[in-house]
Structures are given as C-alpha cells and as structure tokens.
Design goal:
92 residues, alpha/beta, 3 helices, DNA binding, Type_IV_Methyl-Rstrct_Enzyme, endonuclease, restriction endodeoxyribonuclease activity
C-alpha cells in the first residue's frame, strides 16, 4: 500500500510504475495506491494493462470512503427533519 498527500499533483504512470516495481521487490501481486489528488489518464490505462492488481483510490473516493465509514470525520451540525402527521387532520 502506498499513500500520497498532494493537492496539486496528479499521480502519473511513472508513479504507478514505481509502485508496481516496489510490489515486485516484495513479491506482492496486489497493491493499493491512495492519493488525495487524482490519477492521470495514462496511470489509469497502465493499471488495466499490467498483470498485477493495483487498486487506485483518488481524493474523491477517499473522501467518500471516509464519510461512509465515519473515519476521520466529526459531526458539525445535525438537522431535524419534520413531516406532516396525516393522522392529525383526520376527524373522529
């Protein structure tokens, strides 16, 4: 697994190739590459061409996963949602 915290740098094919090489050194067949930014088109295409299974998680997916699993987030405000009680309007 590798994680990068960048705001303005898109991860490119060379970054993924280097990660795939690191997986080879550890005889791993699978890996996860996480970035707070995004991946270039070449990087996404490269992952589809190689035998290794590399899962790419970009900033948007990471944010969604964090919100879904309540990880690294805090509740700032809770809203109360009201609905009309239809039984209230029924005359006996």
């Amino acid at each position: 697994m590798q994680a990068k915290c960048y705001t303005n740098k898109t991860m490119g094919r060379p970054d993924i190739q280097a990660f795939a090489g690191a997986l080879d050194m550890h005889r791993a067949k699978k890996g996860v590459f996480i970035t707070t930014s995004g991946f270039s088109k070449d990087a996404l295409e490269y992952v589809g061409l190689i035998e290794k299974r590399i899962v790419l998680v970009d900033g948007k997916q990471l944010t969604e996963l964090m919100l879904t699993h309540n990880l690294g987030v805090s509740t700032k405000q809770v809203f109360e949602v009201k609905a009309l009680d239809s039984d209230y309007f029924i005359e006996d």
